[in-house]
Amino acid sequence: MKHGLSNSVIFARGEENTDFAQYFVGRSYLNILSLQGVVIGNVTFEPGCRNNWHIHQASQSGGQILLCTGGRGWYQEWGQEPRELHAGDVVHIPAGVKHWHGAAKNSLFVHLAVEVPGQDTYNQWLEPVDQSQYDLLP
């Protein structure tokens, strides 16, 4: 992988994220680190890659926690300003909150995605992030 982070900073980068590619603009990689008790995935976004707007749905508890480990990225909740992310940042995403996250235009971005256990959990994938809005980000 280009950009000097072939091992995705801490954990192995994993394979290209083809199973979820339809919900991403650009190329991402996924390495599932845990499926026992708590689902944890190491996600690497190439520069400019981001996922679509989505909601982590649950009837009780649920949501997601992002533990940022490398590069520079963005997180945005619907109706809020985008938040720039760097290694060491933590994002708590409650169930039911529409949001997106991904890399900056000129940097790859790596985070651990921790699925918060809950009841009746699933991801509701929505529309891509508006390209003109994304292009305004530094």
UniProtKB/TrEMBL annotation:
<feature type="domain" description="Cupin type-2">
    <location>
        <begin position="43"/>
        <end position="106"/>
    </location>
</feature>
<dbReference type="InterPro" id="IPR047263">
    <property type="entry name" value="HNL-like_cupin"/>
</dbReference>
<dbReference type="InterPro" id="IPR013096">
    <property type="entry name" value="Cupin_2"/>
</dbReference>
<dbReference type="InterPro" id="IPR011051">
    <property type="entry name" value="RmlC_Cupin_sf"/>
</dbReference>
<protein>
    <submittedName>
        <fullName>Cupin domain-containing protein</fullName>
    </submittedName>
</protein>
<dbReference type="InterPro" id="IPR014710">
    <property type="entry name" value="RmlC-like_jellyroll"/>
</dbReference>
<dbReference type="Pfam" id="PF07883">
    <property type="entry name" value="Cupin_2"/>
</dbReference>
